[in-house]
Fold this sequence. Notes:
The protein has helices at residues 4-11, 14-23, 125-135; strands at residues 85-86, 110-111. By secondary structure, it is mainly α. The chain has a single domain, classed as E3 ubiquitin-protein ligase SopA (Pectate Lyase C-like), CATH 2.160.20. The longest helix has 11 residues, at 125-135. Strands 1-2 form a two-stranded parallel sheet.
Amino acid sequence: MANAEHLALVRSGVEALNAFAREHEEIALDLTDADLRGLNLRNARLQGAKLAGADLSDGDLRNARFNSADMRRCDLRGADLRGANMHRALLTGADLRGARFARLGVGSQRMCIGPASFEDVRWDRDELERILEMINLNPDWQVRYEIVPREQG
């Protein structure tokens, strides 16, 4: 459950949130299971935040900093994540369907792609194809793939 003071801070606006983050870099905001649907968190400093199970769907998260944040099981459906920095964020079980990204690997968009980026994470097919296209920039190897729906059963 989210820390009530941290939740109130986030809801008070990005300016207040970022001022707090600058003054208290040692504090990891606890927003576990918080309902943050549709919030404007553009340019928010949420490095190291505890966001496991939080609902950030349909939010404006452009250029937000989620470096090393715990985003397990986060609902990010429809969120605008263009330019967001998710370097070392833990995404296991997150729902990223319909989330908008800048082209990963280009400009300021950073995300470590590793096992936690795929384990139970719900990606859109188009985003998976873009990730595989980046892998195919390797001059020595080519990845050939077919993306098909997983059999239910």
